[in-house]
Write a structure and sequence with these properties.
The structure holds two protein chains of two kinds. Chain A is mostly helical. Chain A is about 80% helix and about 0% strand. Chain A contains two helices and no strands. Chain A starts with a helix and ends in a 10-residue tail after the last helix. By secondary structure, chain B is an all-alpha fold. Chain B is built from six helices and no strands. Chain B has helices at about 1-55, 60-85, 85-95, 125-135, 140-145, 155-160. Chain B is elongated, with a radius of gyration of 49 Å. The relative contact order of chain B is 0.04. The chains are: A mainly alpha, B mainly alpha.
Chain lengths: ~90, ~210
Amino acid sequence: MTLWWIGSIVLLVVIFPVVVYLLRGVLAAAESIVPAVDRIAGVARAGSNDLDAAALLVTTREQVTQTVAGVADYGGSLDVIVDDAEDEEQA
Amino acid sequence: MTVIAIAAPGVVMIAAVVLIVLALVYYLVSTILALRRISAGLDAVIAAVGEIIDKSAPVNDIVVAINEQLDAGVDLLEGLLVKKAGLTDAVGLIEGVYPGSAAAGLRNFPHSKDVKPPRIGEVYTKGTLTLARLGREAPIAAASPAGGEVLRNVEGGSLAARSLYPSVRHQRPSNLPRSPVIGTEAPVQYEQRDDVGAPRKRLPARSSGER
């Protein structure tokens, strides 16, 4: 009978608070993750929006290709028109 | 009395177990709700990250292609400059236009770092001619009276020299009066004056009242 009393009191006074303490810790940890995940989601959406301009890189590549082609044509013409420098070793 | 004495600790134990179960239910349900919010947030994150991956997938290839094109342009311009101006003068020109950049040298000419860049005054005439021939893109040619467009303007080669002189006749000749025609075939003939070459006439003496 005495042991039963001791067991009941220990269950009520020790086990119950320990269980509550541990469960509160788990809940607090889980709830602390929620705002972090929300912030990550916001940043990811903003990053995705920032990359909308990445499609313009295709146009940039085409423009660069055309520009370099024009420079190549220009350089080819100059190569024909302008005299070469004298060979420094020979000079 | 004995039954009550036996039931009392059992009631306490049952009450403790019930409290523990209630606590488990409350906190576990709250945790489940929090985990569901986390799951929903992670779904949004995954969707956004998926968009980022999709949008950034071609970036690497495009940037590599752009760099290849720009490398080809740099190779072309460096090679052309060295071919036309010579390595020493090319380094001098680069140093003259962008002071301090000659230390980096030309990318395709590693030994250009060892070239002591001549002062721009030493290669000025040669460099100016080279840059002027390069046309509008050259800073010196753009500032020249010819406007740096000689190579593109077929008439510019001869018209450019005219711009060196003040604007009198060559720009708007129609606004100038015609030169007079002289000689025996001139449309307007003037009679020779009799007094030309004759002795000078004496003027009458002035009276004192006129002074």
